[in-house]
């Protein structure tokens, strides 16, 4: 069994970076939920979140928030701390960080995630931001507390640039985020050798002509249908894959 702590970056009073009215804290939370859903495909993975929809509004901002997250992760005896962010500052692409001097195990996880994510992003003509696999002495961050102080493998993903117009659009696109979540989880699963459940049917969910999920399992479908009916959707389509 592998325990994965999913850490949606920022939250509460800390919006993180913003771009064209979109807040990093909201993107990271949505992405984190999708990542959590995809881990549901792996019977040997359990996930836990450092914040969620209910705690985000009252969540104390950094630095207290960061140390609470670290303490929480360390108390769980987890195998991986996966911190989800998006970048800003006028660039483009994807990059990931691990702590300086991180063990080979962590480097392998970072590499597996990078390969999986960059393969997906190619389809959108998006590449790495510089050298996509960085340690925390490189890039804009000085030292990243959640990487340095967590007592487990820790990887921080900077998923595109929120202040890049084209990438901002993608970060608002539910279908793109769903695919991104899927490949992040695939990368982690490859690194840990996790096997997917194969006996469960998957469905593509379309609401009023818009694909909401490319691949959804039954646990997820109920919530989607409820949400769609609340919004008075007219046509909800489930297609078995
Ligand atoms: Zn961030």
From TrEMBL:
GO MF annotation list: N-acetylmuramoyl-L-alanine amidase activity
Kindly give the Gene3D superfamilies that the UniProt entry links to this protein: Zn-dependent exopeptidases (3.40.630.40)
Where's the MurNAc-LAA domain? 70-189
Instruction: List the PANTHER family hit by this protein, alphabetically.
Output: N-ACETYLMURAMOYL-L-ALANINE AMIDASE, N-ACETYLMURAMOYL-L-ALANINE AMIDASE AMIC
**What InterPro entries does the database record attribute to this sequence?**
MurNAc-LAA_cat, N-acetylmuramoyl_amidase_3
Picking any one GO biological process from the record gives: peptidoglycan catabolic process
Would you say which domain of life the source belongs to? Bacteria
Q: What is this protein called?
A: N-acetylmuramoyl-L-alanine amidase
Q: Which GO terms describe its cellular component?
A: outer membrane-bounded periplasmic space
Report if keyword Electron transport is assigned. no
Q: Which UniProt keywords apply?
A: Hydrolase
Q: Write down the CDD domains for this protein, in alphabetical order.
A: MurNAc-LAA
Q: Which organism is it from?
A: Laceyella tengchongensis
Q: Which Pfam families match?
A: Amidase_3 (PF01520)
The residues forming the signal peptide are none
């Amino acid at each position: 069994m592998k325990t994965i702590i999913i850490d949606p970056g920022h939250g509460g009073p800390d919006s993180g970076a913003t771009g064209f009215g979109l807040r990093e804290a909201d993107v990271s939370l949505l992405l984190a939920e999708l990542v959590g859903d995809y881990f549901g495909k792996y019977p040997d993975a359990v996930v836990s979140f450092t914040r969620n929809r209910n705690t985000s509004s009252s969540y104390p901002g950094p630095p207290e928030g960061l140390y609470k997250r670290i303490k929480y992760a360390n108390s769980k005896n987890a195998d991986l701390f996966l911190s989800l962010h998006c970048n800003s500052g006028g660039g483009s692409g994807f990059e990931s960080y691990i702590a300086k001097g991180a063990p080979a195990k962590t480097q392998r996880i970072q590499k597996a995630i990078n390969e999986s994510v960059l393969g997906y992003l190619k389809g959108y003509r998006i590449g790495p931001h510089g050298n996509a696999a960085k340690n925390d002495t490189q890039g804009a961050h000085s030292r990243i507390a959640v990487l340095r102080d967590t007592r487990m493998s820790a990887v921080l993903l900077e998923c595109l640039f929120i202040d890049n117009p084209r990438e901002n659009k993608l970060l608002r696109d539910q279908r793109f985020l769903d695919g991104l979540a899927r490949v992040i989880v695939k990368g982690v699963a490859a690194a840990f050798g996790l096997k997917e459940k194969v006996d469960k049917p998957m469905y593509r969910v379309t609401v009023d002509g818009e694909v909401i999920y490319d691949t959804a399992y039954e646990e997820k479908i109920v919530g989607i249908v409820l949400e769609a009916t609340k919004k008075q959707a007219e046509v909800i389509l489930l297609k078995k894959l």
